[in-house]
Amino acid sequence: MSKFYPIHLDVTGKKCVIIGGGKVAYRKACSLKESGADVVVVSPEVCSEMVNEEGLVLIKKEYEEYFLDGALLVIAATDNEAINKKVTLDAEKRNIIVNVVDYPERCSFIVPSTINRGDLCISISTGGASPAVAKRIREELEAVFGKEYEEYLDLLTKMRSLAMSTVEDDAKRRRILQRLAEKDIFDIVRVEGVEVAEAKMRDIISA
After folding, report:
1. 77, 106 Cβ separation under 8 angstroms
2. pLDDT in tens, 63-91
3. Count of C-beta atoms within a 10 Å radius of residue 19
């Protein structure tokens, strides 16, 4: 099997279709919704969690190809192999990227295990060989990358904007941005807190 090309996809405002109404389909739908997608779920029956989830378009019908009209991507999450295969063929015919849960050989993309800390997103993939191994690695990394990374990146975004707007010399600005990204600044956030780190970063920008 060929390797997958790693990519983070902007799905904001894009139609993304989930075929299936069970708990796996529900998790996929929620993940896409949290990323800003317009999520359409197609299944004659859906789990109670899906019914109670706001912001999803539920179509309680059997799958037909026309439900893919205008879709950026489709995820097949049913326990019916024939339907999953049809979704794959229909998506390929329309040049829509497709994921079939637990069948990497039928996928044009796979969904990695992820760690999210604000703007920090770390993706772990085994190329479909073992989602369980990807999950174990994710759990190990979660202990390493704590919430302080979210605080640091929020502050870094703010300070980067300040540097971009106040430092006119390109070379100096690049040096400042590199300095703000160094580990000792992160360590200040982790040990001494955001306010102390912000003061330090402002001193670096204004020096």
Report:
1. no
2. 999 999 999 999 999 999 999 999 999 99
3. 29
Round to whole Å and give the CA distance between 94 and 68: 9
Nearest to 109, CA basis, from 91, 121, 101, 97: 97
In tens, the pLDDT along 14-57 reads 999 999 999 999 999 999 999 999 999 999 999 999 999 999 99
Residue indicated by tokens 């703007």: 119
- Nearest residue to 131 via CA among 96, 102, 89, 173: 102
Alpha-carbon torsion 180, 184, 187, 193, what sign?
Answer: negative
Whose structure tokens read 């400042």? 176
Residue 113 bridge partners (DSSP):
124
Query: b/e per residue, 32-64, with b = 16+ CB within 10 A?
Result: bbeeebbbbbbbeebbeebeebeebebbeeebe
Which amino acid is present at 140? E
DSSP E strands: which ranges in the chain?
Answer: 15-19, 38-42, 57-59, 73-76, 97-100, 113-117, 120-124
pLDDT value of residue 2: 57
